[in-house]
User: Fold this.
Amino acid sequence: MKKKHFLLGQLLLLIWYLTSFPSPDTALELEEESVLYVAGGSTDSAGLLIPGYWISGAWTALPSLDAGQNSFVNGMLLVS
Assistant:
């Protein structure tokens, strides 16, 4: 019974995820004075994922915890 509930929960989560976001070909419209912040990672010349963030399209790299391992940012807190 628990396995059925788990699978049903996963299915409902997948349906929510697929219907909550615009399609990839939908342009994001921002007001002219808006600033867009995105956290994540970018691949370097060695093929490693390095952590960083974008502010309105400008990339800012952050130091990796281990230079030989993949790293990325999975969250940001902005306070103004």
